[in-house]
């Protein structure tokens, strides 16, 4: 079994070996290589202690000397070199109270999370697989190294990582590891929200976002995303849907592109439905106003997860607008006004989530929904062709023009420009300098 190691990584291994030290590539790079995937990172484990590593290489970064990690720079790329180590007790379920450096590779592999991540490789010595990682790769199985209770007690984030790896790789979690997850799931509350967000984002952007159901079944979302549990518990007794809010949400996630914005928008597009559910006298459920109420709720969830502002803003906007055009009475006038408020630059993303939302529904009135979507596409294509004014910047006049006819700077000027945009959205043909200056002169705006 041969793994192709990049030349820059081989250079680091050779330099350590020539100085009398053991050194192996380890972890995810070995796993991915054995699966025929291109590794994102190449990590190295060695019996050399951090100061010895620093002494061998000209350019290094002290990534975590207390935990044995030094980043070696080679041609502008950083490679983490970590000393074999034994971890002490994990009183906080996050990090070891102490670290003891070791000269034994087996000690280092024993402390790792899952068997598929506990393999090491050397170009001359070959593969070191002490815990059956290759067999688990073949069986598509996520299994903790050694005692799963001990592994999850050490670092509770491994609970979420198990499901994340299952989602990314299309694997299943083996029964003993699953039971240990259930036993330790509450310990996720000790983990920083930043680490949780990283793993959750990787999971929902994976090829298998349906693993969100696994998060719910294992009790993980009850700790990190209780809103999803409520969605899974909320039925949709309406002919337009065939399943509860949570399973519909998963279906929508499966039908959007695997970007952070689109997957979080899909995850949270119906987050307000549990609060908005109303059952009429015929026993039919309605969810009036859930997009409007859902926008601030989605924003709050993503802020709690410490997502970046760009993702929060764009995903929240899609939550607010995902039902735009749902009713069949959309006219070109109301369409222009809606696109103006939404922002033309966001419309392709809206189309994607609108389409995915439809695909996650029942076939009830399917032809009618398809016709409505085609109508929206036609109006969008016409809008792109005709390029009507959709923002104040698109108007044939600007603030300077209005001040020249006596409209003072400040709130009145802004109000006049907004009123002129409303006129033009009603009738794009009115977007001429002469027409807008005449209208502005007749407006009374306080």
Provide a descriptive summary of the structure in words.
The protein has 446 residues and is α+β, with helices and mostly antiparallel strands. It is built from 23 helices and 13 strands. The protein has helices at residues 7-18, 28-34, 50-56, 105-110, 133-138, 148-154, 157-169, 175-184, 193-204, 212-217, 221-224, 226-232, 245-254, 260-268, 273-276, 290-304, 309-321, 332-342, 347-359, 366-386, 399-404, 411-426, 433-442; strands spanning 23-26, 43-46, 60-64, 69-74, 77-83, 85-87, 99-101, 119-122, 126-129, 141-142, 172-173, 278-279, 285-286. The strands form four sheets. Strands 3-4-5-2-1-8-9 form a seven-stranded mixed β-sheet. It has a two-stranded antiparallel sheet with strand order 6-7. Helix 6 (148-154) packs parallel to helix 8, helix 12 packs across helix 13 and helix 13 packs antiparallel against helix 14 (260-268). It is elongated, with a radius of gyration of 28 Å. The model has no long low-confidence stretch (mean pLDDT 94).
What is the overall silhouette?
elongated
pLDDT averaged residue by residue: 94
Number of helices: 23
Summarize the main sheet.
7 strands, mixed
Low-confidence stretches: none
If you compute it from the alpha carbons, what radius of gyration comes out, rounded to the nearest whole angstrom? Answer: 28 Å
Distance from N terminus to C terminus (CA atoms, Å) equals 79 Å
Largest sheet, spatial ordering of strands: 3-4-5-2-1-8-9
Return the structural class: alpha+beta
Tell me the fraction of residues in β-strands, as a range. Answer: 5-15%
Number of strands: 13
Residue share in helix: 40-55%
């Amino acid at each position: 079994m041969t793994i192709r190691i990049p030349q820059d990584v081989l250079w680091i291994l050779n330099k350590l070996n020539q100085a009398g030290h053991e050194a192996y590539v380890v972890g995810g790079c070995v796993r991915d290589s054995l699966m025929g995937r291109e590794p994102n990172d190449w990590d190295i484990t060695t019996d050399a202690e951090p100061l010895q590593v620093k002494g061998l290489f000209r350019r290094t970064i002290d990534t975590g000397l207390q935990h044995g990690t030094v980043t070696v720079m080679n041609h502008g790329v950083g490679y983490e070199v970590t000393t074999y180590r034994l971890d002490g007790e994990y009183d906080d379920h996050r990090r070891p109270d102490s670290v003891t450096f070791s000269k034994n590779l087996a000690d280092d592999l024993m402390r790792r999370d899952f068997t598929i991540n506990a393999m090491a490789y050397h170009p001359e010595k070959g593969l070191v697989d002490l815990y059956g990682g290759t067999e688990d790769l073949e069986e598509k199985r996520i299994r903790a190294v050694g005692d799963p209770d001990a592994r999850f007690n050490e670092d509770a984030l491994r609970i979420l990582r198990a499901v994340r790896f299952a989602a990314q790789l299309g694997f299943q979690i083996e029964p003993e590891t699953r039971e240990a997850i259930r036993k330790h799931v509450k310990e996720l509350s000790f983990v920083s929200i930043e680490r949780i967000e990283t793993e959750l984002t990787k999971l929902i952007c994976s090829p298998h976002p349906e693993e969100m159901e696994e998060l719910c079944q294992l009790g993980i979302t009850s700790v990190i995303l209780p809103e999803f549990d409520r969605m899974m518990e909320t039925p949709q007794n309406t002919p337009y849907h065939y399943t509860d809010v949570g399973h519909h949400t998963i279906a929508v996630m499966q039908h959007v592109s695997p970007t952070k914005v689109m997957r979080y928008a899909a995850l949270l597009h119906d987050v307000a439905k549990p609060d908005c559910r109303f059952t009429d006298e015929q026993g039919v459920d309605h969810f009036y106003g859930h997009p409007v109420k859902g926008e601030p709720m989605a924003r709050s969830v993503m802020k709690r997860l410490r997502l970046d502002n760009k993702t929060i803003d764009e995903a929240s906007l899609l939550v607010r607008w995902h039902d735009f055009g749902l009713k069949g009475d959309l006219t070109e006038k109301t369409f222009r006004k809606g696109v103006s408020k939404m922002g033309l630059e966001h419309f392709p993303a809206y189309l994607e989530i609108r389409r995915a939302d439809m695909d996650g529904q029942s076939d009830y009135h399917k032809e009618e929904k398809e016709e409505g979507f085609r109508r929206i596409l036609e109006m969008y294509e016409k809008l792109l062709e005709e390029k009507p004014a959709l923002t104040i910047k698109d108007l044939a006049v600007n603030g300077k023009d209005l001040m020249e006819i006596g409209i003072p700077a400040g709130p009145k000027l802004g109000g006049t420009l907004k009123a002129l945009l409303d006129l033009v959205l009603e009738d794009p043909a009115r977007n001429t300098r002469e027409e807008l200056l005449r209208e502005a002169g007749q407006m009374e705006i306080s």
